[in-house]
Specification:
12 strands; mainly beta; 185 residues; elongated; lipopolysaccharide transport protein A fold
Length: 185
């Protein structure tokens, strides 16, 4: 005599088969990220970055960027929408640099700002504009090899092919002065 199985005992097996069958349809993949993000070579992207730069353990500047692209295999950081505030030995702001983009090498403590770069020296409120500005903490030097325009608070403007200065802005030299200097009307 054969044992008769009830429909209730087959129900779990039928449900399992239906679930497996439903999973065999067309697979739609959800996007992981925007293609521009997937194409980036950076290992880490930081939005709203703030970091202090130190020399021999002393805080010398604050670097801020709208976006920072960092790479695992190097100390190189690409910056977008950047601001750097250089500090005097007493901690007061000495100068501020802003630029559209920049690069920072954390191992060498060097930085380059590019694109509509503005350097404001807080001691006398002079402004220096250039397209590219370099900073080297160990050599205590800031300079530009690009066309430079300096504007003093009284309106005097000096244009040249480049400039170089110590970090105290006591020995600032503009090279190849063009068009002389003039005061504002």
């Amino acid at each position: 005599m054969r044992a008769r199985r009830s429909v209730g005992s087959r129900l779990p097996v039928l449900a399992l088969c239906a679930a497996l069958g439903a999973g065999c349809g067309d697979v739609t993949e959800a996007p992981i990220a925007d293609p521009t993000l997937l194409d980036m070579q950076a290992d880490n992207v930081i939005y709203g970055m703030s970091s202090y730069m130190t020399t021999n353990g002393v805080r010398v500047s604050l670097i801020q960027a709208d976006t920072a692209y960092m790479y695992v295999d190097s100390a190189h950081v690409d910056l977008r929408g950047m601001t750097i505030v250089f500090h005097a030995e007493d901690g007061s702001p000495r100068a501020t640099v802003t630029g559209r983009t920049g690069e920072w090498d954390q191992d060498l403590d060097v930085m380059v700002a590019r694109g509509d770069v503005l350097l404001v020296v807080h001691e006398d409120d002079r402004e220096i504009r250039t397209e590219e500005l370099h900073y080297d903490a160990y050599r205590e030097r800031i300079w530009s090899d690009s066309a430079t325009t300096q504007t003093l608070p009284n309106g005097t403007v000096t244009r040249g092919s480049s400039f170089e200065s110590d970090l105290g802005f006591q020995d600032l030299r503009i090279e190849n002065v063009r068009g002389g200097t003039r005061g504002a009307p």
